[in-house]
Amino acid sequence: MPVRVAGKAIRDLEYLHSKVNLSELFDGEPPAMHSHIERTLEASETFLSDNDTVMFASATMKRILIIYQNSTAELPKQYWNPIILHIRRIWDYSADRVCHDAVDTFSTLLEIHLRQCEECLDRPAGDSHANCDWINEITQWLLEPTSLCRSRFRCISHLVGQCPTLRLNLGRDFFARTYPLISNPSFSSVIFQLIVDNIFDRDELWEMHCQELLSNTDAKLIKSRLIPLLQKYHSGNKKDQKPLESDTAVKFLNHLLIQLNSNNPPSDLQSQLEIVHALVCTTWPRKQGKDNDQPANLVDFSNWSQCITDRTMSAAIVHVETDVRLAAFRLVVENPRKTIAFNEQDIEYIKTFLASNMPIQSPSNRQQLLAAYKFMCQRLGASAESYLKMPQPQDRDSDSFSPDSSSLENSNTLKYKLGKDLWIHPIPESYIQLAKWMAKLAFESISSKANYYRRIMGLGQIDVLFNRENFITDGKQLFADRLNLDSTLGSDRHKLVMDCLDDSYDLVQNTALGLLKKLDFGNIKMNEENYLNDALELMTSTRSRNSTSAVFRMQYYLARQPERYTACLRRFLQDLNERANGAEKELMLITSLPVHPILNMIELLLKNATWQNSEEAKLAFYKEDILKELLPICNRIVAIVSPVVHNMSPEGYIPDEMLNEMYGTTTDRLAELSQHLLVCCWRAHKHVSGIFSWIIEVLAPKKIVSKEEIEAIGTFYWTQLTECKHRGAFESATEGFTQLCQFLWTTDIEDLPKPETWLDEILAATRGEQDLTNLCSTRRSAGLPHLVHSIVSTEPRSNENAALFKATSSLLSMDGKTVMYRVHSMNVMKVLIQSSQLHERIVYCYEQCLKVAIDACRADWSERNAASQLFAALRTKIFGVMRSAQRSLQVDGKNRKSNYEFFSKFPTLYRFLYEQIENHENHSEFSLLPPLVVLTHLYTPPSSTDLYPLGPFIPPLLRIALREKHESLRAHAVAAILAISDVYAKADLSQWVQEFKFDNASQNQLHSFLLIVEGLGNYGEYFNRMLQVVKHVLESLVFRGWCDFTINQLLTIANSFGLNFDVDDVDLTKAVLSKRPIAVRLLRDRDAFKSEMCHHLRSYDTRRELYRTIYKQGWDACIMLFRAHVINIAIMDLASLQTVQCDAKRIMKILTCTTDEFMSQQNMQKAVETIEKHLDTPDHSWTLPSTMAYATKIRYGGCLYPDNELISWIRESYELDDPETKQIALDLGGMFVSRIPSKLSYTESDKEIISAVMLYLQDESDFMRQRTAYHLGHLIRDTGYRALNPEICRVLVTKYCLNDGNEKLERFSIPENRHKTMEERDDLFDACAVNQYEESQLFGDIQLYETSLGFSGYNQEMYDIEY
User: Fold this and answer.
1) Which of 172, 177, 196, 817 has the most CB atoms around it within 10 Å of its CB?
2) Which residue, of 1023, 1039, 1061, is where some domain finishes?
3) What is the average pLDDT across 1239-1261?
4) Cβ distance 415 to 1360 under 8 Å?
5) Where does the tRNA (32-2'-O)-methyltransferase regulator THADA-like C-terminal TPR repeats region domain lie (predicted)?
6) Mapping DSSP to helix (H, G, I), strand (E, B) and coil, where does residue 622 land?
7) pTM reported for the whole predicted model
């Protein structure tokens, strides 16, 4: 095959990209520039598959036109159209820079043309039909919807920008085709530019734009794209516009708002809030007022109240969806005009939102809330400054204040008094009360009875609220001084934050520790002895949570008393030594007096030192206490725990001599003890590795660690990475060994071990030249790959990758290696390939690595397994990570490369892959699959050159597809054929398919033939041909002699093509797989249920395929005429004892999805009786919770009232982990709740079903909580809201439905037996949280919620100022 380098033909034109001599370029006949243009155009066409050539040619053509633009020379007309063709070739290129160059080239060419063309120069300014023929041709070409690429729209934008009269061509038809593309990130920016330009030019299309924007466009795009562009046009074009046109953007947005608010309630509340938020947060320049008192602006966007109604905001702030509530809160508090004061209604909304949205689950939403919370604090400080500077009024009843400044000033709900020294205006005073209320809410939210989401939100708000800088804007700090929130801190709040140090979540603990160090809680007295004893008591537990809590407690203690740092460390070293001595005498003591909590404490205290001693004192401490005492103890602990950690048993290990002493102990107890021992040993091992890593990182550079100590640490890591089988152990050792290698590569200390020596030793071991008896022999080589990776990834640049080259050349050389060493080599190479640190440095060996992986697929299972892992890593690195799950053999376009792009990087693979495919009969079927997979990732571009043609691969691939006995290989071969075929090859394939002879074809050949037909049918230009082929096969009945597998493939294709076929043509007695497409056909065949055709449904397998199809696709898969008949036979099958559980579940699901129009009362009664009869059977087969859920739903679907059994089942379903069962239970309970009207008092039976459904308001799934709120919303009194925030719904339904209006709700807290205390839990592992959202008490402000929902007007006390 020809192989040559392309793209170097015009490299001599590189001088054009620097300063040039114009006379040299344009003098002569013909000028040199003409030759440069022709050569550049030829190169861009000839070498279109070569990235380097195309990028250079596009940049060169752009540069040539810029030279023409800056000179007086004219560009010959003969080059205009060729340059346009050049632009069309490259404007959708894979490299973005080429696309940008194409657009810039078009813009420059257009400007040159307008400067040269006499017709364009003589054109009347306002005549849109007087353009020259060339411009009209270009306009027609650009506006035709033949190409969907971003560059086309950018060229249109440049065209209408330089030829404004052409804007009339952008009408309704153009935008009707364009708006559907606006959601595509590639098009949205440039399309919005065209839209905004059209808005300023043609106000008659505003109605169309508003409709399209509100119906087909994401509100976030309007916020991020449209409004900033409108503001840009509004500001930038103001001087060039007429006076009446300068408000075009404001007028259009006002028009958009009118349409937005026309729907009440709005169809998309979140979109409305996002758009209004963008309007409020955008700075609009005000037009200067005229002498005739004209208003400064037609529309005021300074506050949300000018854009939407209070009713809309009230609905949004308590909306059932979190995103809507968050958008409403941001709209209330975020405003670039920070000096605008919050009014009474704003504070009402702020309190309601914060009180009911503390437990937000989504991390992104939580961050948005905290950002808005911080902005609110800044706005409180900024807007209060002007009021704090006001002079004290002489009369408290004076009307000297403007009534328009804020509703708070003249409200009867506010009281203020004159102080002796300082008067405070009501607005900043209300802010102070709001801040104190928010502080109270935040501290209440970090209660131990709150869930994780509420606690972390409370801590985040405390961090923002008590940061004084957040209330200071532009250096103005009057409000921050007056607020003085630190005065509210005390021992009670200190204890709440302290309790968070014992939290089970590391993020909560770290945040709480930071607050304890930062906040001034006053003179808090700590009982030092009790505090330390509590920490030491926690360290006697084997639970990791307890040891972590002890560490955080000690970190806080030492932050308060840093002088105690060394004393505490010495105390822990003493305790560690005592426990190590005990474990040496009796290993099992390590489970009752574990060493890992103390090691964890020492490790974290070393890494987070709080002492402030001199450098000499620190070095002395490190030498005497750490190196002389801690290191020997760690080495002893390693010797104690290594036999357990290195043991192969994943279930734990007890030495044989200890087992003899435990004679008579039960098996369960032995299993528990072995796991307990393994956990304690492994955790100790992990912390020792962390301590060693710290020593290398911190102490070794100080040159106080001896050579022997460094060698001992290196030996420890070497042992773990070469011999240990415990995944956690060798992975924790990897971090320390990487630190050690990094130190050894760069240190100037002599006589230390060198990483090169270790690399040579381990490479010799992988070649079998050096005997490492204990070298790990696991399937993935355990820590061995990490050892090599640590050495080569830390290699300094000055070494020029010498270690990496040595490692890869040795590992990829398989000559003379045994199976075990070949497996080790490939496992190591896989880790090196996957490494992000090596990335570009290791690309050079991809080619050889692919060959090794493909060749190794011919070997036995162990080697083949390692090779497949290596190949998978290479595929990901070469072709990229899959954007979505690949459910077919058709590869996503973003994960494919052109033939030239791939083989120019790996040229020897061209011959290698071809030989693998050509000589497939001589190779293992396992080694054939990787080359086929590689080929499915390649394609032939339309303008491909003769370099590395893929056409020669098609004949051998076709032979594989027709002759190979393995179905998977045939399918991959067909996928490869379709992937690499260009237009001509596909045409040949289509012709071959149409001439295919079925007479002597084997079943495998027929299968491949059908796969090719199906694949070609996916291309629009070949669909009709393939349709006729399949239709011919069905009509000729040639398939009657085919096997079931092939018939199934044929009928599946027929269904996907929408072809009808006669099911009688298929022998159902031999059909198995083909019954599935037959079932699909029956469900949409009007003649399927005639009496003479009912025999098709006598087969139970065919009926179960009917049920499966409806179960997957819904009732839309069945025509309405036969739904009732399907229901009849489904009920009969449900009553049969032969129906297995999975089929029964499908039947019951499709029955529950049936409307009353097709399900008669008799049939429903039959189904209920059948289910009850089955459930009464002692040993019935329905054991899955979801199956029982569907049965229960049908059983109680027609009941008027729930019984105790149903209510108990609803409660039990809440405890399950099956989302399907929980949703069915919720919907069934919600059906009964919906029948309960809102009333003053509820019966006990009502309360039972309501309380059962209310459990789901605490479900971990936000979807389930919202669904529950929809079921319960109508029970809230005196309000028309159907669905509320689940937090509000839970509190108010509890009060009005379960507690008869009484606000004392303590008895409705979750029973303590549902939340086991720490002491009751398993002492070995931390219990998995079944439901992280569930809380053991009710949180919320009932009066605040009632006020927000309009129960009794505003709560006057909320704004009273107390003195």
Assistant:
1) 196
2) 1061
3) 91
4) yes
5) 864-1014
6) helix
7) 0.82
